[in-house]
Amino acid sequence: MLDGCVPWPGELAERYRAEGYWSGRPLDVLLSEGARQHPSRTALVDADGSRWTYAELDEWASRLAAGLAETGLRPGERVVVQLPNVPEFVALFFGFLRAGVLPVLALPAHRESEIVPLCELSEAAAYVIADSDGAGYDYRELARTVGEAVPSVRHVFVVGEPAEFRPLPSASPGPPVSVDPSDVALFLLSGGTTGTPKLIPRTHQDYLYNARASAAVSGFSADTRYLVALPAAHNFALASPGLLGAVAAGGTVVLAPDPSADTAFELIERERVTVTAVVPPVALLWMDAAGFMDEDLSSLRLLQVGGAKLSAEPASRVRSALGCDLQQVFGMAEGLLNFTRLDDPDELKITTQGRPLCPADEVLVVNPEGDPVAPGESGELLTRGPYTLRGYFRAEQHNARSFTPDGFYRSGDVVRVLPSGHLVVEGRVKDQINRGGEKIPAEELENHLLAHPAVHDAAVVGMPDEVMGERTCAFLVVRGEAPTLREVTAFLRERGVAAYKLPDRLEVLDGFPLTKVGKVSKVALAQRIAG
């Protein structure tokens, strides 16, 4: 196990192997087996209609793996990957697995305030970007900042015009790197409650189970045509079941550059897409758009919705608006996944967020003192299992707070469990805003706001929103003249804050309401903005 990662205890590891959850195979078998079993079947389709068979994608991944090795990247080194939904992401992901190099998957929306700390924490040896986002943002400028700030970054690889950097490396395939399935395969990012990035190590064996079991519970098969509408680096779109689940089933992956109805509906019609996954705001927009757009969506059989809770009212409209079944998915990059089942009654599909994927998933619901609540009562969700991490990477102090002594992960989600085992998500314990599936740490944004010369104090809370679930309101106590929302957002952009973290609303107060122990009462602030 890589230094800085927390392994599963021996007795649990033995149990997970004995019960068949861990197969003892590397994650790359998803593609290599597909290339051997059905080489001529279409594996990947780009938005422009370009296509790769399983054999072609397999060859591409092997050439990239050899190219990475020729640049001097060694097994176990980390590479921060920040790519949109392009075919290079898929080929490169498998190339990293074959080279033994560990991808750290960042999102396209991340900017300097996320990427620089991420490269520092991971001690990244390389950084992979696209040349631009297609809307005017040049990632090469960000790469220059990274190069100046993070000495460990030896290479920058660019999909597109590389400028002074390097294109993706490619070489004749050599012998494969030997991989221990219990070793880390990749790092996902946690949407935590502080500004410090937290890396989630996912091993070959746990992520292989994650993808295969998710594909099975979602009914994926060789006929599946999966549209990647969300960023491919997101755990939901990557392996829950995502593109890896589609590959595991021998299906076809279709890449969408964005999740807009215009883009997605055209691809659904053209490629006869059967399943896709979105966050609730996208689902709402699609349902509204379906009433006046002309594309044929009849191939779509399943819409998976996760990342945030889909309320019962819009959930009840999915079938009539889009003509497909709904599967609610509640999970976390840290591990535990919950799915409504395809044969569940409609009532459960509409009103719950599913039940655990795996028989070995252990779920506890506890009160603030850590004691189990009575059946059916609400409390914080704690969990452990064969695909739930045992600790964040190089985060000893945070791990002490986030895990119980016996290894249960404190999710921060408030849930109640029905007699059927289905979970109903009721909110968050942690100080975090869920803006349409994007997790915004309040403390991180507050720290940026406090750097503004006119801001004396700052408190960030979520405000209810029918479309996004929550939007962000920044309460400020100021010095002198109060800045406008436009001025504040311009200041935050200059600090490299990602666009989705910018406040939607600004409220200036003379002082903050306080709790009895003298802390800022965010409950009172949230009640104020909700009213």
UniProtKB/TrEMBL annotation:
Tell me which InterPro entries the record gives: AMP-bd_C (IPR025110), AMP-bd_C_sf (IPR045851), AMP-binding_CS (IPR020845), AMP-dep_synth/lig_dom (IPR000873), ATP-dep_AMP-bd_enzyme (IPR050237)
Residue ranges annotated for the AMP-binding enzyme C-terminal domain, each copy included: 444-519
Q: Name one Pfam family in it.
A: AMP-binding_C
Q: Where is the AMP-dependent synthetase/ligase domain?
A: 33-393
Which SUPFAM superfamilies does its entry note? Acetyl-CoA synthetase-like
Q: Does the keyword Protein biosynthesis apply?
A: no
**Known EC number(s)?**
6.2.1.71
UniProt keyword terms in alphabetical order:
Ligase
Write out the GO MF terms.
2,3-dihydroxybenzoate--[aryl-carrier protein] ligase
**Is Kinase a UniProt keyword of this protein?**
no
PANTHER family (UniProt xref): LONG-CHAIN-FATTY-ACID--COA LIGASE (PTHR43767), NONRIBOSOMAL PEPTIDE SYNTHASE PES1 (EUROFUNG)-RELATED (PTHR43767:SF1)
Name the record gives this protein: 2,3-dihydroxybenzoate-AMP ligase
